[in-house]
Amino acid sequence: MPRMRAVQVKHANGPFELVEREVPTPAAGQVLIKVQACGVCHSDAFTKLGAFPGINYPRVPGHEVVGVIDKVGERVTNWEPGQRVGVGWHGGHCGHCPSCRRGDFITCANGQIPGISYDGGYADYMIAPFEALAAIPDDLQAAEAAPLLCAGITTYNALRNSGIRAGDTVAVLGIGGLGHLGVQFAAKMGCRTVAIARGADKRPLALELGAHHYFDSTTQDVAAELNKLGGARVILSTVTSSQAMSAVLGGLAVDGKMIVVGAAPDPIEVSPLLLIGGRRAIQGWPSGTSADSEETLAFSALANIRPMIETMPLERAAEAYERMMSGAARFRMVITTGQ
Ligand SMILES: [Zn+2]
Ligand SMILES: [Zn+2]
Question: Could you give all domains of the chain from N- to C-terminal order, each with its CATH number?
Fold first, then answer.
């Protein structure tokens, strides 16, 4: 049997270990992907720390996977070996639960996540069900496409489903792995784009990414500054600080909403009067399906949107993960297999 390299987490809170395994065989409805690149996401911590209910070990993390189809199982009729594909957070759905019966697959009660429900992309090969596959446009390289399958789709899909129209004011809170993509998407969708981050040093980058305004939350009253622009129709929150989210809510326009895509453990504080008076809202957004991934990739290729990445070879996955977790990455770490 052919062998492959994989980086697995042996048990909850255990170290990453580089192991050799047999290359798996796709069952009916599955494909075998020869992995070229896999983005390192903050949610990989679910696998590393055992913070996701029901996770089985050892487990190979990774849900921003780009590669080439190597083999297809039975009943896979619309994909074939040699096609470039990606797999994101949405790694399959059950087809039976109430959400699936409504066609709302991303909220499937039994939804599968690569790297959590089954082995993900920190490996030379991985298996995925066909419904999780997105086609990769020719003009996107594997390493730059990878982060678009989680950080990209989450920000793009949240914005395009928010009801914003060209010319609306959209603020992106946080300029990191998600935020640096959110700013590009908002600007390329034709919105007056406001980037908000801590410190003055991110201003040049924010403007380069397409932001029309930059507010430094350490020296400026961001809510007041947003109100000077008429208020934000949407604030896309990519930070992991609920305190930072609470501080900008006062900058929402009438009918404005904050869309939360960055996970913070503590509660957001908001005045009910602020919500009631101007019909303001706070909403979460969970990435999207494989079709949404494909449209994220296509829009990124069309509008020349790219993630800023640092790459590391598969055998340095642990280092890539640590660099992402420490906040040192500018802005997305991507593991490459060299194949
Ligand atoms: Zn992710
Ligand atoms: Zn379902």
Answer: 3-150+288-336 (3.90.180.10), 153-284 (3.40.50.720)
Residue 44's closest CA among 116, 111, 112? 116
pTM: 0.96
Residue 15 has a CB neighbour count (10 Å cut-off) of 10
pLDDT along the chain (339 residues), means of 10: 95 96 98 98 95 94 98 97 98 97 96 98 98 97 98 98 98 96 98 97 97 98 98 97 97 98 92 96 97 98 98 98 94 96
pLDDT of amino acid 57? 97
Quote the ligand 1 centre to 296 CA distance (angstroms): 14
For the chain, percent helix, then strand, then coil, each to nearest 5? 30, 25, 45
The per-residue pLDDT for 1 is 80
Ligand nearest to the CA of 105: 2
Residue 42 Cα to ligand 1 middle (Å): 6
Measured in Å, residue 134 CA sits from the centre of ligand 2 at 19
The reported pLDDT for the residue numbered 265 is 86
CA 100 to chain centre: 22
- Considering every ligand atom shown, identify the ligand nearest to the alpha carbon of residue 61 and give its number: 1
Q: State in Å: Cα 64 to ligand 2 middle.
A: 21
The closest ligand to the CA of 108 turns out to be: 2
For residue 28, give the DSSP letter. Answer: T
H or E segment to which residue 276 belongs: helix 272-277
Instruction: Compute the distance between CA of residue 206 and CA of residue 180 in angstroms, rounded to an integer.
Output: 7
